[in-house]
Amino acid sequence: xxxxxxxxxxxxxSGVVATELGKILASKGHxxxxxxxxxxxxxxxxxxxxxxxxxxxxxxxxxxxxxxETTLASKIIDVVKYEQLDLLHVxxxxxxxxxxxxxxxILKEENITIPFVTTLHGTDITLIGKDPSFVPVVQFCxxxxxxxxxxxxxxxxxxxxxxxxxxxxxxxxxxxHTEEHLPDExxxxxxxxxxxxxxxxxxxxxxxxxxxxxxxxxxxNRVNAATPSKLILVGDGPDRYACEQxxxxxxxxxxxxxxxxxxxxxxxxxxxxIFVLPSENESFGLAALEALAVGVPVVSSNTxxxxxxxxxxxxxxxxxxxxxxxxxxxxxRLLNPADKMRFRLQALDQAKTFSPEEIxxxxxxxxxxxxxxxxx
Length: 376
Ligand code: GMT
Description:
Layout: E1 2-6, H1 13-27, E2 31-36, E3 50-54, H2 68-83, E4 87-91, H3 93-108, E5 116-120, H4 123-126, H5 135-144, E6 147-150, H6 153-162, E7 169-171, H7 187-191, E8 200-204, H8 213-226, E9 230-234, H9 240-249, E10 256-260, H10 266-269, E11 274-277, H11 286-292, E12 298-301, H12 306-309, E13 316-319, H13 324-335, H14 337-352, H15 356-373
Bound molecules: ligand GMT.
C-alpha cells in the first residue's frame, strides 16, 4: 500500500509514534511518504520504501501568522496525486486532520479518492483541543475522518466526553520493540554519572507544565536524602529554567544532570534504576513504555492512560498527581535490593504486551478496510 503519514517532526510522542510506525510499515513492504515541515527526529537513516516530503512554509510579509494548514493541504494534494497514494494517516488532530479533509475534498473535484485515518494522541483532545477556539474544527474533523484511532481507552473516553462524536473510535496503543532479556549493564558508562552504589533516577519529557518536572526533582530530593542517588533529566522546554533554579535552591546541582534533548534515549534509560513520570495528564505515556522496554520500573501518577501502561505493583507504582511522599516511598521500595530484579523483569514483561507484532496489524486492518471500500 502507498501511505502518506502526516506528523509533527519534533521530539513529542506523536511524531515518534508516527515515524516508528512508518518505519515498521516500510519494512513490511508498504511505501511510506512522510509529510511535514522538517526532518522527523527519529527519521535519519536511509531505509528502503521511505520517502520524505518537506512542507516549505512561505514567509510572505503580509502574513503575521503563516498559513501552515493551507500549505500542508497543498503539499498533501501534490503527494497524493503524483505518488498515487492509497491512503493518508494523520497524527495529531490539529491541524493535520483539517488539512487532510481539505485535501480530500479538493482531490474529489479531480475524481481522486483518498481516505484518511486520524490518530488522536492526547493534548490534541485533552489540552489544546478543548480550547474553545479549536473545538468546532476538531469535532468536525473527528467525525469527517474515515477512521479515528486513540492511543488509550482513557483518551477514547475523553474524546467521547468532550466532543459530540458519532463515529467509532478504535483504541490502538503506542508500541515498542523489546529484547527478550534485560540489557547488559554498562559499568564504564555508568561510572561517568554515579558511584557504583548510587541509584540513578531518570525522567524524559518536553519540560511542559503538564509533565510536572518539579515533582520529579522534589521526589528525587527526598530519595537522595534517604539514599544518595543521581537524577538524569533528558529533554528541554518551557519549564527547564525553573527546574534548574529549583535544583540550585535545593542544593542538588552536583546530583542532577540535565542532558537536554536527545534523538535516541535508549542508552540513557539503560543506565537508570527508576523512571519517574508524575504528569498532570498523559494520554498514554510513551516515555514510560520506553523505560519499561529496557527493564526500568516506573514511578508515575495515575492519571489519563498511564494505568493502562504502568501496572501498579507489577511494572512499577502509581500515585495520585502531586503525591510526592507516596512517589518517594514507591521509589525507595523499588530500590530495595530484595525486590529490584523482580520488578525489572516484570517491567520488561509488561513492555512486551505492546510489541509491534501485536499493535501494527491493528493499523493495517483499518487501512485495508478503507482502501478496499474506498468510501470517502
Ligand atoms: O507528551 C507530550 O507532550 C507530547 C505528545 C505529542 O502529542 O507529541 O505526546 C502525546 O502522544 C504520545 C504518543 O501517542 C503519548 O504517549 C503521550 O502520552 C501524549 N502526551 C500527553 O497526553 C501529554
